[in-house]
Amino acid sequence: MSVIAKSFAAALMVSGLIAGTAPAYTQDTKAVVELFTSQGCSSCPPADELLAEYAARDDVIALSLPVDYWDYLGWKDTLASPEHTQRQRAYADARGDRQVYTPQVVINGVEHAVGSNAAAIDTAIKETANGLSIPISMTPGTDSTTVTIGASDNPELKKGMIWLALYDDPIAVPIDRGENTGRTIVYTNVVRKIRPIAMWMGEEMTVELPMSELVHAGVKHCAVILQTELDDGLPGPILGAAAVDYSS
What we know:
248 residues, alpha+beta, four-stranded mixed sheet, 5 helices, 35% strand, disordered N terminus
């Protein structure tokens, strides 16, 4: 059993509770917009604001993934993760264009655009919508959320990685140094943890996500993303995604 499989199996043995009313859940496959941003980037705040608009849409899962490669400019990003930087660079390697910048959005794992360019993002969402062919549902329970991944009717589409993204409520960050000195910027849907949890082999499958995942991460939102893998494990097109919100 792989390290990923072992860690996921161990997680399934742990259960926890999140108090509150029954959460909402999503069943229709959503477009995924990933924003790679930085508190040390003066051109990022408009993109951060725009991401909040996409997060409010019913047809989009909008995620903020702060990167750490601008920290040397005088302000260490308080939300950044090297894993986010690695994911952004992996996308560039997969596309073969070597374009890594902020603010950059990656849409459905395929297209990229400047994070403040709503017209380009909307166009990319429409152009890549046909790739979202695998239905995903998330049904919350008391101790776990049941994730159901649909089957593929394409004989060439029989393998993908299931990713779990845990993300935060909006976070306001006052910035004291660097290019955004004196500004307080609100970051929406900041990813606190993103990791692969299982492989999908083209047939319908069910995965149980323990509530302890959210408790340990200190968040009340999570998304499940089904994504193809290219050569050398690079991220490919996203095939489906859904999200659950436990903040209600």
